[in-house]
Design a protein that fits this description.
- With about 160 residues, this protein is α+β, with helices and mostly antiparallel strands.
- It has a single domain, classed as 2-Layer Sandwich (60s Ribosomal Protein L30, Chain: A).
- The protein is about 30% helix and about 25% strand.
- The protein is built from three helices and seven strands; from the N terminus they run αββββαβαββ.
- A five-stranded mixed sheet has the order 1-2-7-5-6, with helices on one face. The protein has a two-stranded antiparallel ribbon with strand order 3-4.
- Helix 3 links the parallel strand 5 and strand 6.
- Helix 2 crosses helix 3.
- The longest helix is centred in the middle third of the chain and has 23 residues.
- The model has no long low-confidence stretch (mean pLDDT about 95).
- This is RidA family protein.
- InterPro entries: Endoribo_LPSP/chorism_mut-like, RutC-like_sf.
- Pfam families: YjgF_endoribonc (PF14588).
- It comes from Streptomyces himalayensis subsp. aureolus.
Length: about 160
Amino acid sequence: MSQPLPQTVKGDSASERLQALGLKLPVLAGTTYLVPHRTVGSTIHLSGQLPFKDGELLGRGVVGRDVELETAQELARHAALNALAAAVQAVGDLDRVRIVQMLVFVASTPDFGEQSQVANAASELLIEVLGENGRHARTAIGVAGLPLNTPVEIQVICTAV
C-alpha cells in the first residue's frame, strides 16, 4: 500500500491551496474538433492538456535534447494546472475534483528514460492542491513527438466527489 504524501501547502480548501501556490485556474475553450472534457456516467475524461499560459505555449522541443528535465517539470505543472481547469469546468468546484488516472506524454530522446520524473512534477501539483483527491494512478511514457512540438501533454480521467 502506498504512503500518502504530506500535505505541504496550507489551506482549508483546494482553492485556498491553489491561491497559496500563487496559481489561478486558466479559462479553457473548446475548438471545432474537441471539448475540454466529456462525462460518461460518473467518469470525466479530460482532453489532453498542453502547457499553455494565457494562450501561449510555454515550451517547444524534445526533452533530453532541447529541453532540460527541470524545464520539462515546470511545463508538466502548467499542463496539470490546465487539466484542473478542465476538471472544474466539468464539476463546477475545485473541491469536488478527484483525479483517478493521469497519462503523461513526454516528447523525449530515446535514451532520456526519466519520463516519470517529469510526471512527478504534475502529480505533485495535483496532490498539493487536491490533497488525497489528487492521488491517482499514472502512466508516463516517452514519445517521438507531440502537437505543436510541445515537450509535454497530459491526459486526465477524474470524477466528482
